[in-house]
Amino acid sequence: MKISKICCIGAGYVGGPTMAVIAKMNPNIQVTIVDINEDRIAAWNDEDLSNLPIYEPGLAEIVKETRGKNLHFTTEINKAIDESEMIFISVNTPTKTYGKGKGMAADLKYVELCARNIAEVATTDKIVVEKSTLPVRTAKAIKSILHNTGSGVKFDILSNPEFLAEGTAIEDLLSPDRVLIGGESEEAIEALANIYGSWVSQDQILRTNVWSSELSKLTANAFLAQRISSINAISELCEKTEANVSEVAKAIGMDSRIGPKFLNASIGFGGSCFQKDILNLVYIARSYGLNEVADYWEQVITLNDHQKRRFSDNLISTLYNTVSGKKIAMLGWAFKKDTNDTRESAAIYVADHLLNEQANIAVYDPKVPSKKVYGDLDYLATRSEDENKELVETFDNPYDAIKDAHAVAIMTEWDEFKTYDWKKVYDLMKKPAFIFDGRNILNKDEMAEIGFEYSSIGK
Ligand code: NAD
Ligand code: UGA
């Protein structure tokens, strides 16, 4: 079965880049991305590519090449669904904030709405692809919604989880470690495998049953996050023992069974997925009565929360146990470099702890707009919007943010931070001048030479 028209519901961090790459690699397929968010679609259609809603290295170039040819962004959801043979569901699946499973389970209301939308408007057979990260056995619910329409339309459901990481999305999509497709219908699986086959070798396209595919996605994220919590647990022990966590990470990473990647100690992992997906896994395990399994994975989150809290506690105690009225310059607000995404960024929580101690926070991030910084703090609702406005200031220039600060806290590992004139930074700051390097990106000896009181994670 050859596909000529694809629709993707959800023009977010996954839908946008993934469909852009599919369109680039399959010039004969028309790809339409739809979203209920009109502003987001307008931004995707903006003439000025620096206004795209998502910042990812390499993304603007691909959008420039394909937009208006075989890549389209629109809010006309029903039309796009009806015209397509294959529909990807790539909407958000956040942690539930209400009712049963609040704070743990995935909120599947957006996914269900998509399934209902497809069921309502489809007049021809469709392959429906789960691209969103979903709890194992979600395909059963989607199938039940789609098959109870009475319209006689045939639906095949596939699970095709996405493994891209933000900041390297285009690279990850162009050369994936693997593509995973779970499903029942061989014909549907091969239709999707063909699309990826334009640029991914067939032996990297893994076919499984739908439940293995759904569960593999949550498991992959749980294993990745577990590595960070493991090295972060060791970072605290390093600080007590004069061991150096980077040296430990290097030494253990050279064991090929462990491997060198994903062992950077940090202020803790952020992002929209690790925490949400592990909480979801914990919830599923508990719902099957598997309490030991649930407790095991929950500890990954506990350690991550501890790491964020430890960072702010250390900052406060080093600044003579009070930050009240002191200016703390935070470099970076995004949850990692090369993205404008701030969801669950450690910076939000560290700022919140410091604001509870009446600190004045000055934020500089090369890609995150001021509106987002305030939005993130207001969303926590720890204090009023007015108080956040009063205590937090955002800057377009790092040196303005740093001027007269008592301390600099590095929250994100943006490359540009390494290139700053740190001598100039020192001169601009109050003395003694403190640096709290939450990403271990600066050189301890160089900073000490300049005169800084420098501390990092696990060293
Ligand atoms: P996102 O919030 O950036 O984008 C989701 C989009 O879906 C939003 O623009 C929203 O307006 C739209 N939407 C919601 N309901 C809709 C509906 N009924 N009709 C049309 N549009 C609708 O989310 P994201 O980061 O792209 O994540 C999407 C899914 O992919 C999640 O399940 C996530 O866990 C998973 N995932 C994310 C990443 C990542 O790095 N962000 C990586 C792999 C997997
Ligand atoms: C992660 C996974 O890496 C992707 O494979 C997955 O598809 C995605 O989640 C998802 O399901 O959404 P992402 O969250 O975008 O991707 O970014 P990561 O590179 O995994 O970083 C997550 C967090 O861990 C960041 O805050 C990062 O700074 C932190 N991190 C990462 C560390 O603290 N140390 C490391 O060694 C690596």
Layout of helices and strands:
Blueprint: E1 5-9, H1 15-25, E2 30-34, H2 38-44, H3 59-66, E3 71-74, H4 77-83, E4 86-89, H5 109-121, E5 126-130, H6 138-147, E6 155-159, H7 169-174, E7 179-183, H8 186-196, E8 205-208, H9 210-241, H10 245-253, H11 274-287, H12 291-318, E9 327-331, H13 346-356, E10 360-364, H14 370-380, H15 385-391, E11 392-395, H16 398-402, E12 407-410, H17 422-428, E13 434-437, H18 444-450, E14 453-456
Parallel strand pairs: 1-2, 1-4, 2-3, 4-5, 5-6, 7-8, 9-10, 9-12, 10-11, 12-13, 13-14
Antiparallel strand pairs: 6-7
Bound molecules: nicotinamide-adenine-dinucleotide and uridine-5'-diphosphate-glucuronic acid (UGA).
Describe the structure in your own words.
The structure is a single chain. The chain is of the alpha/beta class and 459 residues long. The chain has three domains: 5-208, NAD(P)-binding Rossmann-like Domain (Rossmann fold); 218-301, N-(1-d-carboxylethyl)-l-norvaline Dehydrogenase, domain 2, CATH 1.10.1040; 308-456, Rossmann fold. Helices cover 44% and strands 14% of the residues. The protein is built from 18 helices and 14 strands. The chain has helices at 15-25, 38-44, 59-66, 77-83, 109-121, 138-147, 169-174, 186-196, 210-241, 245-253, 274-287, 291-318, 346-356, 370-380, 385-391, 398-402, 422-428, 444-450, and strands at residues 5-9, 30-34, 71-74, 86-89, 126-130, 155-159, 179-183, 205-208, 327-331, 360-364, 392-395, 407-410, 434-437, 453-456. The strands form two sheets. An eight-stranded mixed beta sheet has the order 3-2-1-4-5-6-7-8, with helices on both faces. Helix 1 crosses helix 3. The protein is globular. The mean pLDDT is 97. Bound molecules: nicotinamide-adenine-dinucleotide (NAD) and uridine-5'-diphosphate-glucuronic acid.
